[in-house]
Amino acid sequence: PRTRKPRMSSPLPSKGDLAATAKLLLRRSIAATEPREAIRCTLAICNAAGAKELPDSLRCHAHLNTGSLLHEHTEEVGQAVQHLRIALGLCSRLAHSASDCWLMTVCRGLSIAQ
Prior knowledge:
Layout: H1 15-31, H2 35-46, H3 56-73, H4 77-93, H5 99-113
Protein name: Anaphase-promoting complex subunit 5
């Protein structure tokens, strides 16, 4: 009897490739006409292997968009709030120039809380 060799996982893409792919997915989610497609794109960024290596501003926007989309188009309020909390944590670590991200996250969180 032959034993199967375990599959080797492919190496993670470089940080530059990962960031470029994440930016493309974020633009694709914004341009999507179907909510499911938009959610799929933003979740792909948030859940990607190596996502923690992405710039905080990009991760913040991905989690902000994911939380907003989940709240608007699904019954997953808990997941929406979780993504907004992550976005808020990321925004608070950014420089003051990213205060628009922080403001959008706080406003979105307040609208969900209502």
